[in-house]
Specification:
Blueprint (H helix, E strand, L loop, with lengths): L1 E5 L13 H8 L4 E5 L13 E2 L9 E2 L1 H9 L7 E12 L2 H10 L2 E6 L4 E2 L9 E4 L9 H12 L32 E2 L2 E2 L9 H19 L1 H9 L12
Parallel strand pairs: 1-2, 1-6, 4-7, 5-6, 5-8
Antiparallel strand pairs: 3-4, 9-10
């Protein structure tokens, strides 16, 4: 997959290239990352990329011309999606990451900066995405978050692909608890069912724990899960 980022802070993405399995995926050619700085496309001698907002107000606004020029220099692959990082966008979901990882060969990220961006930049994007109801100094961290989430879903990135289907938010339920050795630690013991060798009982326990955790921690997700086709809430057992 080709990943292109339009950003005034391209250095923010360098850590991804050495980040565990994500970095190895870039090294192996599973994904490739390209950054494009609008400042390199500014035409005035000061390489100006922002200006005061019409109508007055605090802060500076990212100008459209350098962004359009940087965007226009990006090669276009047939299956491409352009994402604008914005606190006004749709909330990011795991389903989005999987859709982008599956349906597209190229993702382009538009990162705002300063007080915001000229409204005429919005038409470049296919989708506007938010990672939460808060505001950051720019779109770099949201874009890096999405890149991490997408690349880990690409075939070959994670050694055991099946693990991607069992984690939190792969369905509407949160993931069940995990334990490893030792069996007892500071008075806390691994549940007996996990040491029983009874794979059926373990599967039931994990499903039950998923429901419990989701109901306690994310009742909004649990309510949606209860309404989803095929959901079967059941009583706790084999704890």
């Amino acid at each position: 997959m080709r990943l292109d980022v339009v950003s005034l802070a391209p250095e923010a993405f360098a850590p991804l290239l050495g980040l565990g399995v994500i970095g190895r995926a870039f090294g192996a050619g599973i994904a490739e990352l390209h950054t494009h700085n609008p400042r390199d496309y500014a035409t005035d001698k000061y390489r100006k990329v922002d200006d005061e907002p019409y109508g007055g107000g605090a802060g500076m606004v990212l100008k459209p011309e350098p962004v359009y020029a940087a965007f226009g220099a990006i090669p276009v692959l047939p299956r491409r999606r352009v994402l604008l990082m914005s606190p006004q966008g749709q909330p990011l979901l795991q389903a989005d990451l999987r859709r982008w990882a599956t349906d597209y060969d190229q993702l382009v990220f538009l990162c705002g900066h300063y007080e915001g961006f000229d409204e005429r930049i919005r038409p470049l994007a296919d989708e506007e995405v938010s990672i939460g109801d808060f505001v950051l100094t720019g779109g770099e961290l949201p874009a890096a978050t999405i890149i991490n989430g997408v690349v880990r879903l690409l075939p070959g990135t994670v050694g055991t692909a099946a693990s991607l289907d069992e984690e939190s938010h792969s369905t509407l339920l949160l993931e069940h608890p995990h334990y490893t050795r030792p069996a007892a630690f500071q008075g806390m013991e691994v549940p007996a069912v996990l040491r029983s060798g009874d794979h059926g009982a373990i599967a039931r326990w994990r499903a039950d724990q998923q429901q419990q955790r989701t109901q306690e921690r994310r009742p909004d997700l649990y309510a949606r899960w209860e309404q989803a086709p095929g959901s079967e809430p059941h009583a706790a057992q084999d704890r």
